[in-house]
Amino acid sequence: YLADYLISAYQQKPNDYKALYLGQISTALAVTQQYFYHVAELIDSQPQLSHELAIRQLRSHVEKVARQVMEVIGQALGAAPFCRNAHFARLSADLPVFIRQSHGAFDLQKIGELSSVVANDLTDGQDNIWQL
């Protein structure tokens, strides 16, 4: 919903900077959406596998994108909506609380461990990401 505020601000008063920030957010959200679809397809196609690495990578990526959205929207809109719009301010205050409840550093540590195994053994159903 935070992104809706930027879309609305751009539609009401377009400018290049808002378009740039909107482009950043739009791209990040689109990639994240496709990653969700990919992981879901991976799970559906091979339900016997744990897919732990892919799930943890997705969760870590979503956290990163949520932080990016918060930062970019703040840059794009400035201080006004934080001070003058109670709903926006509440959303902006609540999102970091939810992010803090993630597994963050533990996920990254486990991703590192699992990546060292998956790099040599692709039994988790993932493609070898080390060979772009």
How would you describe the overall organization of this protein?
This protein has 6 helices and no strands. The chain is mainly alpha-helical. It has one domain (2-118). α2 (16-45) packs antiparallel against α3 (52-77), α3 runs antiparallel to α5 (86-100) and α3 (52-77) crosses α6. It is elongated, with a radius of gyration of 18 Å. The two termini are 34 Å apart. The model has no long low-confidence stretch (mean pLDDT 91).
The residue ranges in which pLDDT falls below 50 over 5 or more consecutive positions are none
Number of helices: 6
How many β-strand stretches? Answer: 0
Query: How many domains make up the coordinates?
Result: 1
**Multimerization status:** single chain
Shape: elongated
> Which sequence of SSEs, written as H and E, runs from N to C?
HHHHHH
Strand content is under 5%
Terminal CA distance reads: 34 Å
Look at the structure and give the mean pLDDT: 91
The structural class is: mainly alpha
Determine Rg (CA atoms, Å): 18 Å
Largest sheet: none
Helix content: over 70%
